[in-house]
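Title: Prediction job returns without error message
Component: structure pipeline
Severity: low
Priority: P3
Assignee: unassigned

Description:
Job completed but the reporter wants confirmation the result is attached to the right record. Sequence as submitted:
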Amino acid sequence: MKIDPVAYVGAVVREVAVRERDGKPARAVIATRRYDTDIADLWDALTNPERIPRWFLPISGELRPGGRYQFEGQAGGEITICEPPRRLAVTWEARDTVSWVTVTLTDDGTGGARLEVEHLSLVEGDFWDRYGPGAVGVGWDLALIGLALYIAARPAGQFDRAAAEAWPASDDGKDFMRRSGADWCRASIAAGTDEAAAQRAAANTTAFYCGEPEPGGGS
């Protein structure tokens, strides 16, 4: 599978915002990109349990407001808001932590739709200092690529999910993750993070996603 890392990195607008949640310091990692489909189809791709595994992961649970979901081998949580076809919010429970994900869809005025995903996390312990926004940001970038490839495959049966899953381990995939990490680093600096600290965190995140030792000697 040939994917241009530069083009796909450039398709996403990245932002880091300083927030609070329950009176505690928090950071929002926000990624936005356009999809060449209408808002109804994009919403269905994001919420239909038969379509979600075609571009992301198998999902189970009660997929309704107040219900709980579980991605196979990944996060689970509660569906807190479901307002078709515009807004979806869930808790994101993984590795004994809880964070919050909100997805917002808008018409872009040209027949396409724009997706914004916001992942809000509390700043606790040393995790943010060690990995920065790329810890979740690079992962969302990879998910947004999978969704873009799936949406672009017409008919949908043309989408080679196995090839898409293998792509991150390729040279192009690692190039993408490095570029994604660098962009999240720039977004972190723009939000007020010290430049040297942001660069150290980005280096650790890139090493993690590329399966390399952390520069600082972490695991």
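Comment from assignee: result matches the submitted record. The two ends are 30 Å apart (CA to CA).
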